[in-house]
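[Automated response] Your request has been received and processed.

Submitted sequence:
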Amino acid sequence: MVVQKVAFYDDKHDHDAVRNRQHCLFSRCHVVTGTSIFLTIYLIGTFLKALFFLLFFLHGLFLLVLPAAVVICTYFGIKTENHKYFWPFIAISIFHIIISIAAGAMFTYIAIFLPKYLLMVLNLVRGRMDQDVNDGYIVCSVLFLSFLVIFSLYNYWQLRVVLSCKKYYKAKSELVSFSNSTSEPQALNVNYLLNDDMGKRPTM
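Generated structure:
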């Protein structure tokens, strides 16, 4: 017997709650579209790194094996709607967050307590011989720390969206399996599709 699947909402509050958990980028697009956007940005970044290595450091191309695997797995996961293939993208996002926090903490410590080491690096880059902390040192330090903060926040945002997409596909596959295993017509609440496993807060 063909299972009749009817999605319904208890009230407007349920409708809004489910919609928020299915959407991201301030509810402007679906989590699948959001994941595709983040994947495209990641792919562009990988391409730029490949171009840099080709021009300046050919032996560094082997470092792109992992990013390439992330792109391929995530793309395959989106095309096949298989939530298991999203783990590499999730893992690399967590890795970037950890690295950003660790680098920020280390850089802050060196900038405050061991400024001479950073001055040596800045002198090499700028071709100068400054011996004391100056305005250029402070500006460069603030810019670098700001980059690390923005990078970590971006990866956290990316992580939330990709996790929501993974959970969406997982819930969707479980719903399909449940429907196929049921011999009687069922009225399935769409809240099941994005239940507590999706989290209570909306995805940004």
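Summary generated for your ticket: Helices lie at 12-22, 31-56, 65-80, 87-113, 115-126, 135-180. Confidence is low (pLDDT under 50) at residues 1-15, 183-191, 195-199.
If you did not submit this request, please reply to this message.
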